Amino acid sequence: MAPNGNKPRILLVEDEDALATLVSYNLEAEGFEVEHAARGDEGDLRLIENPPDLVILDWMLPGVSGIEICRRLRARDETKTLPVIMLTARGQEDERIRGLSTGADDYIVKPFSVPELVARIRALLRRASPERVADQLVAGDIVLDRTSKRVHRGAREINLGPTEFRLLEQLMEKPGRVYTRGQLLDAVWGMSVEIDERTVDVHVGRLRKELSFGREKDPIRTVRGAGYGFDDTFGK
Ligand code: CA
Description:
Helix content is about 40%, strand content about 20%. By secondary structure, the chain is an alpha/beta fold. The strands form three sheets. Strands 2-1-3-4-5 form a five-stranded parallel β-sheet, with helices on both faces. Strands 6-7-8-9 form a four-stranded antiparallel β-sheet.
């Protein structure tokens, strides 16, 4: 990973000096090796010459914008899957959506807390490490961890109730398969339970609401007259 020791290398592309200093200082204290570029074109060049383990990109930068850098790095084989966190200004919802659709894994709104940033960095780096995926179901940007009982979409943790968790687990196990409401009741609630099949609809509705934010793609398919399934084209 990193040239010296085992520290994950983070490239911070940010033109606000005070913020860059604060973030660098704190990330170094958390055990990361931090490189800083104050201009977009400089960041772009460093990503070509020596890709880090993760990049934090400010949206508005002199030279080349964060979005453009993101687009470029996604187009190159060496950085196609590089974890990217985009920094945006408060209230710029459109930017966030554009950021995610351009290929950022996560975004964080300024002003943000450093512990929040650190948590997201760690989540993304965990996801990028293949040795950690053993007990996980992964589809597109959704990760369900059976051991910790946690679900993430990108770096965002999704808090599901136990029923929604089991429901998602069931659906993610066999992407593309359509389950009837009765089959889901059996699998998720248990055979002996007598529950109205509409209960399934209620819980699928809750699951969907938690899973998809803004214009994120809904991974659950409703098949009229049949039931529900996990979209096997999701994330592809
Ligand atoms: Ca800026």
